[in-house]
Amino acid sequence: MSQFSKEISLAVDLVRKASEITEWFKKKGVETYLKKDRSPATVADFSSQIYILHQLMEEFPKDQVIAEESETGLIDDHSAKQINECFTQLDIANISDLKNLLNYRGQKSSRQWTIDPIDGTKGFMKGLKYAIGIGLMVNSDTKISVISVPEYKKNGLTIFVAEQGQGAKASYGGKDFEAIHVSDHNNLKKARLCQSLHYDLPWVTQFADKLGIEKRIKMDSMAKFCLVADGSYDLYIKPIMGFRAFTWDYAPGDLLVREAGGRVTDLDEERLTFEEEKCILKAPGIITSNGALHDEVAVFIRDKFFSI
Ligand SMILES: [Mg+2]
After folding, report:
1. Stretch (H or E) spanning 159
2. 116: CA distance to ligand 1 center in Å?
3. Ion ligand 1: protein residues whose beta carbon lies under 5 Å
4. Which of 91, 49, 87 is CA-nearest to residue 66?
5. What is the pLDDT of residues 169-184, one digit of tens each?
6. How far does residue 252's CA lie from ligand 1's centre (Å)?
7. pTM metric for this prediction
8. Residue 82 Cα, ligand 1 centroid: separation in angstroms?
């Protein structure tokens, strides 16, 4: 029996509805803002987060929230009007205090929800791949993760769920959930590799070139973790620049892949750890694999690109 069935059920509902919100804005067209750290956000990012946080506040008022968006100054009268229009059309009632909700963080607690209202905003803005990710950590240990990918391959809205010790599953295009598992491919030259579309570094492509890996896909968002988790791909290699990584970006995918039988580590093969909003890495890159290829990939990358 699942220890977190109520939380999982809520998180599945939240990513499903939040996907309706983001798709509504995708059809309508979104305005883009540049945040203080120069990364982009859109009114769809804000709307999705406001909706999710409002529901969490209602259902789990004693929990803490770790969420990506916080720049309420970007919600002006014009964007507030758009958000209200979206909520009205999607029958979302009783959400009014937009700025306070965007910054709702609950109460200090050992139970912490991690929220990425749109992961892959650059992809979203271009009509490419993006995802919505929710995790729940207890004492910094990820217990559940729920990820929606509105256009996953050609399946339409796909929702991925993992619970610690209980495995991983997916619902493709509204179908029933089915268990998912990483691939068992163990020939590195024939591996299928996911790369970041907007945040890659040359050594990842050089790694693939040196090994003669032909099947490669470049994509935004944590959908790449989903591709490894369900065996569509075997590897995902992500450089981390300046050791800057956030919990909401990696906690859900990390649990999903591990529960599907794979591995997620930094380049030194240390597990990712999370401390409030920080994803902590000792070596500047993340290797996500089906497990069978992991050691070989890590050794190769360290020898060829990071040996002193
Ligand atoms: Mg985001």
Report:
1. strand 158-163
2. 5
3. 68, 116, 118-119
4. 49
5. 999 999 999 999 999 9
6. 13
7. 0.97
8. 19
